[in-house]
Amino acid sequence: MVANITSVRHDFPILNTKLPNGQPLVYLDSGASAQHPKSVIDKISEIYEHYYSNVHRGVHQLGDRVTSEMEAARSRIQTFIGASAPEEIIFTSGTTMSINLIAQTWGRHFLKGGDEIILNEMEHHANFVPWQAIAKERGAVLKFIQLTPDGRLDLEHYQCLLTPKTKLVAVTGMSNVLGTINPVEQMAQRAHEVGALIFVDGAQSVPHQPTNVVESEIDFLAFSGHKLFGPSGVGVLYGRKALLENLPPFLFGGNMISEVTCEHSSWANIPARFEAGTPAITEAIALGTAIDYVTELGFDAIQEQEHTLSQYTLQKLQEVPGLQIYGPQEIEDRGSIFSFNIEGAHPEDLATLLDRKGIAVRHGHHCTMPLHQHLKIAASVRASLAFYNTTEEIDALIEALEFARKRLRLA
């Protein structure tokens, strides 16, 4: 467990502020965007105040320093996810861009009519719509893994879906609604048995559990900086080197070329081939700082803290009259994400009343409309935790839910 939660919370300045209505902030929306430790905030200020410049093309001291720091961040990310080489790490604008990059390059280059892509209904739209669009364009077929009643993937059905026609399996490491932790390593092995690739949306899983792309046999992985306690506007695409080297570029312009003439252009080696234009320089460097922070805390401590919080949260939510939690009911099978509804209460009304008590949660379909259709609900309320939350904050959530129930005349 995180040794000194008070000290950790002091690392995050926003957690120690009060809202305009005077309520202390209880931030339970880390699944949408996590908060930033002061080391990340300070790093951003340091860059802009002392050595900001463009990267890769300058020989002056500022350009040399930011280039060195950005490439050092790339190497830290490589180590963080267990990749084989730094050139397998592509900086993008976020998870959505990373997924679209592969859909538009690998999909257009390798998919043909009759090929099959396997998805499931718990996927975020970012790991759903790009595959839906490229399948329609290329004449490929989408297949969907059935969900069990408690919100897991039916692995027997998954095995039945896999055929020699399967070219790609796209799956989230952790559901952003159900909290379900999917067996990515097992799924990758089965996909490879039929010659298919696996793309893992790690937006929710990478910040909360160790990831090793080589050991898990992951072909492509995407995640975002802003969910990993780093800046928004930067994300990561990992791809196995042999795969990336056979892909054409997605965007065209500066930095991604080897040679340009009036007649033709040739492309740079990876990763530059996929990083056209000026990248999110400060954000990429600060993402390296965020990874340093997480690494220093250690995933053993992070997971123990979040497991304890999740156990407590699940128990307390189950005691609220009329409240239904979606997803696995066993804490070992889920991450620290809890989506729920209360009978007779509209999710937006609940979220609004919780906000009056300083509780920041999210409501809506959470970019998972197929999942909500599967659950036969229009929307839900989501509380998503991180290691910096406390049991006292969960108590505040429960008190606020009781307040909401009374205001909505449900109690």
What does this molecule look like?
With 411 residues, the protein is of the alpha/beta class. The protein has two domains: 5-30 and 298-407, Aspartate Aminotransferase, domain 1 (Alpha-Beta Complex); 42-295, 3-Layer(aba) Sandwich (Aspartate Aminotransferase, domain 2). Helix content is 39%, strand content 16%. The strands form four sheets. It has a seven-stranded mixed beta sheet, with helices on both faces. A four-stranded antiparallel beta sheet has the order 11-12-15-14, covered by helices on one side. Helix 7 (184-193) links the parallel strand 5 and strand 6. It is globular. 47% of the residues are buried.
Determine the CATH topology of the largest domain.
Aspartate Aminotransferase, domain 2
DSSP strand content: 15-25%
Order of helices and strands: HEHHEHEHEHEHEEEHEEHHEEHEEHEH
The percent of residues in helical segments reads 25-40%
Low-confidence stretches: none
Gap between N and C termini: 36 Å
> Which assembly state applies to the chains in this document?
single chain
CATH class of the largest domain: Alpha Beta
| Largest sheet composition | 7 strands, mixed
Q: Mean pLDDT across all residues, rounded? A: 96
- List the total number of helices: 13
Q: Please state the structural category.
A: alpha/beta
Radius of gyration: 22 Å
How are strands sequenced across the largest beta sheet? Answer: 2-8-7-6-5-3-4
